[in-house]
């Protein structure tokens, strides 16, 4: 899969494709249905399939602190898109210049002059352009003028409710990981590099891997049963994700993972943390002794769950 960053990096060879546009946060089952249709049109027309995404995501640009937590960071999103058979990703910097484009300008500069789109596949609620003035009807009329076809992907539902990134965040907040897996088509996980932290876990008898989140906000908060994928081997464990209210820190979300019965050095390594069940909410403890006792109870619950 080819990644093109910005319109200025498009070349004549990139013209002529079938495309879709969106955040694709989570690359969930609803997104996968759109990508399946994209592949079908790609084969039918003999053209590459291109996904247009934005960094940062628009809501992160307009109101960073109020933006919803990301389900997938860019690196993981790209890997998931590649796994869905996408040929090319055009990643547009969402900035003042892009936000000021009218719907007509966006179509002309991105779809016509940039990509030479022959077919466009969009979600049924897709909006674009300055003040979100562009919609499916606008795209249909643009396609008739500029000789490309437009199709709206049908809503994909699970248990009678539309699958969306918003719904997935709600399900994760409720700790319903079996439902989250059905919405995603895979277990929910977070991948990141293990960084050096405050080493407080060692003092508490609970050495943890401090996993880089690279998110403005975390999609989960609390203590969870997890498994960790490292070098093709699955390790059982427990994880805390949150702002660590009992410890003086930076106020940012952190993911700290304890691997049960593991004693290796994994600093600098990338690991995938798969979430299975919520043990409890994150809470503030009055003393480090109380925190240490709670952590040991969490580990005991994890051991009992995993049969260790």
Summarize this structure as a short list of keywords or feature phrases.
Riboflavin biosynthesis protein, ATP-binding, 308 residues, six-stranded antiparallel barrel, FAD_synthase, 27% strand, alpha/beta, 10 helices
Nutshell version of this structure?
With 308 residues, the protein is of the alpha/beta class.
Number of helices: 10
In CATH, what is the class of the largest domain?
Alpha Beta
Number of domains: 2
Series of H and E elements: EEHEHHEHHEHEEEHHEHEEEEEH
CATH-derived topology of the largest domain: Rossmann fold
How would the global form be characterised?
elongated
Main sheet summary: 6 strands, parallel
> What is the distance, rounded to the nearest whole angstrom, between the alpha carbons of the first and last residues?
41 Å
Strand content of the residues, in percent? 25-35%
Q: Helix fraction?
A: 25-40%
Number of strands: 14
User: What strand line-up does the widest sheet have?
Assistant: 1-4-3-2-5-6
Q: What is the annotated CATH architecture of the largest domain?
A: 3-Layer(aba) Sandwich
Residue-averaged pLDDT: 90
What is the C-alpha radius of gyration, as a whole number of Å?
22 Å
Low-confidence spans: none
Indicate the structural class. alpha/beta
CATH homologous superfamily annotation of the largest domain: HUPs
């Amino acid at each position: 899969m080819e990644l093109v960053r910005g319109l200025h990096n498009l070349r004549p060879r990139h013209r002529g494709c079938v495309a879709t546009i969106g955040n694709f946060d989570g690359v969930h089952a609803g997104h996968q249905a759109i990508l399946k249709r994209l592949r079908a049109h790609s084969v039918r027309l003999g053209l590459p399939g291109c996904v247009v995404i934005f960094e940062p995501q628009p809501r992160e640009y307009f109101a960073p602190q109020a933006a919803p937590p990301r389900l997938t960071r860019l690196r993981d999103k790209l890997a998931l898109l590649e796994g869905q058979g996408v040929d090319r990703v055009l990643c547009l910097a969402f900035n003042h210049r892009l936000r000021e484009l009218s719907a007509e300008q966006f179509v002309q500069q991105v779809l016509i002059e940039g990509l030479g789109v022959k077919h466009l596949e969009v979600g049924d609620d897709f909006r674009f352009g300055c003040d979100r003035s562009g919609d499916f009807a606008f795209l249909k009329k643009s396609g008739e003028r500029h000789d490309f076809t437009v199709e709206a992907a049908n809503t994909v539902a699970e248990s009678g409710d539309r699958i969306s990134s918003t719904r997935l965040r709600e399900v994760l907040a409720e700790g319903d990981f079996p439902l989250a897996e059905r919405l995603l088509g895979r277990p929910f996980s977070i991948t990141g590099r293990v960084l050096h932290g405050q080493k407080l876990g060692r003092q508490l008898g609970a050495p943890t891997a401090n996993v880089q989140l690279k998110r403005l906000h975390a999609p989960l908060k609390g203590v969870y049963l997890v498994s960790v994928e490292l070098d093709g081997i699955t390790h059982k464990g427990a994880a805390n994700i949150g702002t660590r209210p009992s410890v003086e820190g930076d106020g940012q979300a952190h993911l700290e993972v304890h691997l049960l019965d593991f004693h290796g050095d994994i600093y600098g390594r990338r690991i995938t943390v798969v979430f299975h069940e919520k043990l409890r909410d994150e809470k503030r403890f009055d003393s480090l002794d109380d925190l240490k006792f709670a952590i040991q109870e969490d580990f005991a619950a994890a051991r009992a769950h995993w049969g260790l």
